[in-house]
Amino acid sequence: MDRKAHWENIYTTKEADAVSWYQPSAHTSMAFASKAGLSPDAKIIDIGGGDSYFAERLLEAGFTDITVVDISAAALERAKGRLGTKASSIKWIVADAADFNPPAVYDFWHDRAAFHFLRDEDDVENYLKTAQEHLSPDGTFVLGTFSETGPTKCSGIEIRQYSESAMQQRLSPYFEKTECLKADHNTPFGTVQHFTFCSFRRKE
């Protein structure tokens, strides 16, 4: 499957609130950002951010160095349109998380529901090595995926579920867990998706 073509089609044919991941509050992600003790000028990157509201909430909280990465140019354009003049305060990068080459080292690496689409082991390994190499020594890596009781597909694509232990084990060559929690996401369609969210520190 052509991943990029698939996501470009999704973001050009569906409204923002007509997709399951729609979440204006970004409350779980913002809670992790708050716990990380970031300075206002901390470098923050949101992988697979699309047209999510996380970057917008970060701006509202006073953060000034935000990068959003997504495979879909249409998703990023939609986010820019919603933000208007504030969009210029964010760096926007069109790239596939599986082979992304970050332009900087970050203090806070955030991924809500991008990593679980990576099912090829080479893609997973490359992603984790890239994240480790581009996270500051005292930085925070936050990963949110469908849990073992969550959906097995999203947008018609099979995903890889992660329990807390499975996520910790897979990331253990590169990261050390600091906190994990279960989070329920209420979709616009009245369903509930079960997530595993964990924060990690980089291993040297």
Strand order of the largest sheet: 3-2-1-4-5-9-8
What would the average pLDDT be, to the nearest integer? 96
The helix tally amounts to: 6
Would you identify the CATH architecture?
Answer: 3-Layer(aba) Sandwich
Please describe the biggest sheet, giving its number of strands, its sense, and whether it closes into a barrel. Answer: 7 strands, mixed
Briefly summarize what is shown:
By secondary structure, this protein is α/β, with parallel strands linked by helices.
Explain what you see.
- The model has no long low-confidence stretch (mean pLDDT 96).
- The strands form two sheets. The chain has a seven-stranded mixed beta sheet, with helices on both faces.
- The N and C termini lie far apart (36 Å).
- Helices cover 29% and strands 30% of the residues.
- It has one domain: Rossmann fold.
- It has helices spanning 3-13, 27-35, 54-60, 73-83, 121-133, 164-171; strands spanning 43-47, 65-70, 90-94, 106-112, 135-146, 153-154, 157-158, 175-186, 192-202.
- It has 204 residues and is an alpha/beta fold.
- Helix 1 (3-13) runs parallel beside helix 4.
- The radius of gyration is 16 Å and the shape is globular.
- The longest helix is centred in the middle third of the chain and has 13 residues, at 121-133.
